[in-house]
Amino acid sequence: LAIGAVDERGAAASFTSFGKNILLYAQGVNVPALIPGGGNLMFGGTSAAAPQTSNLAAKLFALKPKLTVAEVIKLIQNGADASESDNRLMLINPKRSVELLTARKLP
């Protein structure tokens, strides 16, 4: 699952990738991070956007460990929202993906 990066407004970051393999986007500009010693750092890049999606996938697996990878990807895709800045970009929406999962009747 390849993830592109957007800014705080949901607009494509100047450095992000596009194309048929980029299905979803997450914030990748001015992402806050903690650094050793307790300090804060703002950083960016697709390397900042991808972990947000991995975190969402991990939460979905934690809630329903028997999910398949394909099911998790589908939940993330179906929970995504079109960006208000560019409706071609689908932004991950963790809350919505979890809501979709909890609404499903799974063993």
Describe the protein.
- With 107 residues, the protein is an alpha+beta fold.
- The chain is 36% helix and 23% strand.
- The protein has three helices and six strands, in the order ββββααββα.
- The strands form three sheets. Strands 1-2 form a two-stranded parallel sheet. The chain has a two-stranded antiparallel ribbon with strand order 3-4.
- A hairpin with a 7-residue loop joins strand 5 and strand 6.
Strand order of the largest sheet: 1-2
Residue windows where pLDDT falls under 50 for at least 5 positions: none
Rounded radius of gyration (Å): 14 Å
E-strand count: 6
The 3D shape can be described as globular
Report helical residue fraction: 25-40%
Count of helical stretches: 3
Terminal CA distance reads 25 Å
Encode the helix/strand succession as letters.
EEEEHHEEH
Biggest sheet overview? 2 strands, parallel
Which structural class matches the secondary elements? alpha+beta
Beta content: 15-25%
What number is the mean pLDDT? 91
Give the helix/strand layout.
Elements: E1 2-6, E2 22-27, E3 31-35, E4 39-43, H1 46-63, H2 69-79, E5 81-82, E6 90-91, H3 94-103
Parallel strand pairs: 1-2
Antiparallel strand pairs: 3-4, 5-6
Helix pairs in contact: 1-3, 2-3
Label this structure with key terms.
alpha+beta, two-stranded antiparallel ribbon, 36% helix
Summed up:
Helices cover 36% and strands 23% of the residues. It has 107 residues and is an alpha+beta fold. The strands form three sheets. A two-stranded parallel sheet has the order 1-2. A two-stranded antiparallel sheet has the order 3-4.
